Structure formats: C-alpha cells, structure tokens
Amino acid sequence: MLDAHGAIFCMQDAILGGTDAVNFPNQTVEQLRRGAARMRLADRSQVAMHFCCIDELVSADHQVRTIWAAVCQMDLSAFIAPIASREFTEGRPANDVRVMVGLWLWAAVNNIPRGRQLERCCERDLTFKWMCGGLSMNYHTLNDFRVGHQKALDELFAATLGRPVHAGLVGVTRISQDGLRVRASAGTGGFRRKPTLEKCLAEAGAHLADLKKLRDSPENEGVEDQDNAFEIALATDRLDRVKAALAQMPLVEAPKGKRHSKPESAARVSTAVPELKAGLMKMPDGGYNPAYNVQLASDPDSRAVVGVTVSNSGADAPLSEPMRQQVQERTDKKVSMHMIDGGYVNLEAIDTAAADNVTLMMPVPKPNKNAKEQDRYARRQDDSDAVAEWRARMNSELAKEIYKDRAATSETVNADLRTFRGMSPFSVRGIAKTTCVALWSALAYNILHFSTALS
User: Fold this and answer.
1) Cα–Cα–Cα angle for 341, 347, 350, nearest 5°?
2) Residue 276 domain flag
3) What tens digit of pLDDT does each residue of 93-129 get?
4) For residues 145 and 143, what is the distance between their CA atoms, to the nearest angstrom?
5) Which of 94, 177, 315, 332 has a CA between 20 and 30 Å from the CA of residue 197?
6) What contacts 24+ positions apart, CB below 8 Å, involve 155-158?
7) Based on the domain organization, do 193 and 246 belong to the same domain?
8) Is 92 strand, coil or helix?
C-alpha cells in the first residue's frame, strides 16, 4: 500500500518523467501537490569550445604584470649564457629565461615554495598561465632553474638593488640585521655518531660493490639495465654523503679545552645534509631541529632587503662583519651604522667595526649575578677603548631611541618573508641551493616595494 506521499511521487514520475522537474526531500504535502519544481540542470557531459586571448586572463592593473615589467628590464645575460641550444645548431629550444625568472618571482610573491606546486599552478591558475604565455612547464625544469644559477641570481639581486640605491630610494649608511632560522630538509634521525657513520660507510660500499658486480656479470653483458643503473646512482650518492659526513666530523668535534664543545662520543653529523654538521638549532617554537640560519640585512628607512646570506651555524655572533662587507660590495656604499640584537654580541666584532669606522648598535648584556661589576655600562678592566665606548653609547637615550628601529625593521621584514614570500621549511638541500631560495624571496620582496622605480 502507498501512503499519500508515495502516491504523489508516483504520479509525478509518470507525468513529469524526462523533464527538468526535480524533487527535494522534506517537502510538505502542499508543495508536492503543486508539482515538482522545474529548473535548468547542469550537464557536465556536454562538449564546449572556449576561445580567449592569454593576455586577457588578467586585468591590466594586476600585480603579475608589475613583476613581468620588472623582469623585462633586467639584464638576464648570465642566465642565457649556459643555454646550449643556439641558432644554426640542433637541439630543442630552451624556455624563455624571462618567463622562468618571472615564474619563480611570482611564486615567491604567492608563497609557493616547491616546483611541483608551481607546475600545478601553471596548469590551473590564470595568473601563472598568463606568465607562462602558452609555454608548457614541468617541475624538473622549474626546480633545476631555481637552484642552478646561484651566481647569476646573486648578481641579479645586486643589480636590481643598485637602481633604487643610486636613485636615493634605498640607503645603506644605516642597516639592520637579524637571523631567520628555517627548517632544513632533513630529520633529526639522520644525525649519527662516528662509529655509526663508519658502519654505514662499510655497508654502503659493500652494497655499491654488489650492484656493480651484478652489472658486470656475464649474463648481463651488453644489456642496458636502467633499473640497475638507477640503483647504482642511488648507492653512489649514499656512499658520497656518508663520506662527506665523516669528513665533517672533525669540525664538529671541537678542539680540546674549548668551552661548550661536544665530546667525541656526543658529536653527530647528518648523512642527509652533511654540511648541516650538528645543525640542531633552537627554533622559534622552543624546539631543536635541523635548520639553516638565514641572515637578512635591511634598510630601516625604506625596509628594503640589502643583504642575504645563509649559514649552517646556530651562532649569530660571527655573522655581522661578513654581512656588512657583503652589503658594501653589493652597493658600493659605506655602512656607517650597524644595528643588531643581543645574539651578535662579540667584543672582537666591536673592535673590528670601530677600526672600520662603523658604529655598532647592539644591547649590552646583563652581567652574571656572580660578577663583581653589576653595572653593565661601566668599563671593565680588560675592555678596549672601542668596547668601553660601546657600553657608554648604549646607555644614552639617543642610542636607545635609534635602536628601536631595529626591531621595527628586521622583525617585520623577516615575518613578511617567512609568512608570505616562500621562506618556509626548505625543500632543497645544501647551502648553495638554500641561498638561491632566499635570494628569490628577497628579490620578489624588493620588486614589490620598488616596482615604481624599476618600471
């Protein structure tokens, strides 16, 4: 037996079958008596053709056009030089280097840190499609270009920075420096002690020998086994990384008598990224992870990034002078004031800066509770004139007011790069490749700041 609802549904199916009438659950009897609602239904099986101009995918004032306009004015000859495909020669043409540079700059602007993710954006996102201009992309090509031109990228960063510096938009007489610790592409389990590394070396060597023996066996003579060749390449890479880790071990085992040194039994090196050494750095969340120390120098007035270095050292103290030298070489200008935080306090660095006529602005650390002299601004017996002057200077109200610009500059710039410009956990390994990633982020940041000057 059918109730009233069932009878009405049967009547509707018989009368309205094959039409665009649609029934929805939870309808009242009165609504059902009026009949099913007629609607235009979606049909995703139909085939349609769409015509559009690629240039019409983005608006005339879109930010991606600003990036492209800046790229078109850059000297990219250093990126073009390695291209082997030339006129009157065989070979597939290379992708336009302007498009490749533009893609990675636009990726940094949109916080896209990986080549696979960028490849998907080139297929789906209208702005990236516009930047590609009809060129097809794959993640291998994108990743290779991203980290394969460190010298050219460094020169491009310096050249792009030079125009606003000489135009007076950016100044380097006063710079602010701070470090940004970015998670490395390595796990804590990859850090091993010397006995374990020696055992891994023996195992890796034996495995590689077995693979080569299998390749050279009589039954495989003259046969190209791609799987075996791939396994040999992996085994060779594994053996090289273990050897590199063992080579780093003496650097981790600090000399006898050095304070805060690790004993030989506690020293560990990563086999995934040997150059990380014991690179377990304290992260902003309070934990310890393998990481790189990205150093950024900024102009407090314009907020432009004027210097970029990447270190595997968790200590900031030795990194102030190299950054200052880099900024002076990039801009051909003299740095007269260098603002850094308490992690860079180094008495030798103060003497070096004073000899170079540079005023260091950094806080004086509080004395130990057991120290004889509790006034941190008072001169110590072993202080040099430069150190004593630094103590007295940082006790003045003028210096304290000037030093406020450091946090307002470096902290905001670092937060912008970490949050919005792709300075997230590195997906590449090695200081050379991570430096390239940091330069892409800094370059994109500067272009957005000074797009008017570059156009």
Assistant:
1) 75
2) no
3) 999 999 999 999 999 999 998 999 999 999 999 999 9
4) 5
5) 315
6) 155/78, 156/74, 156/75, 156/76, 156/78, 156/79, 156/101, 156/443, 157/308, 157/330, 157/439, 157/442, 157/443, 157/446, 158/330, 158/331
7) yes
8) coil
Same structural domain, 354 and 305 = yes
Distance, CA of 392 to CA of 379 (rounded, Å): 8
Contact 143, 115 (CB under 8 A): yes
Same-domain status, 130 and 167: no
Q: Decide if 224 is inside a domain.
A: yes
Contacts of 317 (CB under 8 A, 6+ apart): 343, 344, 345, 346, 349
> In this structure, what token pair is assigned to residue 407?
């946090």
Question: Domain check: are 266 and 390 in the same one?
Answer: no
| pTM to 2 decimal places | 0.81
Residues 9 and 76 in one domain: no
Do 303 and 162 belong to one domain? yes
pLDDT digits (tens, 9 = 90+) for 141-194: 999 999 999 999 999 999 998 888 888 889 899 999 999 999 888 877 778 888
Number of domains in the chain: 4
| Cβ(366)–Cβ(376) below 8 Å | yes
Q: Identity (one letter) of the amino acid at 407?
A: A
Pair 287, 396: CB distance under 8 Å: no
- Assign residue 92 a region: left if phi > 0, alpha if psi is -120 to 50, beta otherwise? beta
